[in-house]
Amino acid sequence: MTSPEAYIHFTPGLIDDDGHVTVEGTEKFLASFMTAFFEYVLRVLAVIPQP
């Protein structure tokens, strides 16, 4: 996947012990990035021959 790219500057406390992102803006960004990644995977799987 060449786009979008994600660069996250990790700071202490960005992710809590339960794995939750503590900064709302970062959480929204990561959610949108993962949605784009999911859509990319679906496009790739659509063109790869399945057994």
What would the keywords be for this entry?
51 residues, mainly alpha, 1 helix, elongated
The major sheet is characterized as: none
Structural class of the secondary elements?
mainly alpha
Assess the beta-strand content as a share of residues. Answer: under 5%
From the alpha-carbon coordinates, what is the Rg to the nearest angstrom?
Answer: 15 Å
How many distinct folded domains?
A: 1
- Identify the overall geometry: elongated
Individual helix count: 1
Q: What is the number of E strands?
A: 0
- Elements, N to C (H/E): H
Mean pLDDT: 90
Poorly predicted ranges (pLDDT <50, ≥5 residues)?
A: none
N/C terminus separation: 23 Å
Share of helix, binned? 40-55%
Provide a brief overview of the structure.
By secondary structure, the protein is mostly helical.
3D structure, described in words:
This protein is an all-alpha fold. The chain has one domain. 47% of the residues lie in helices and 0% in strands. The chain has one helix and no strands. It has one helix at 24-47. The relative contact order is 0.14. The model has no long low-confidence stretch (mean pLDDT 90).
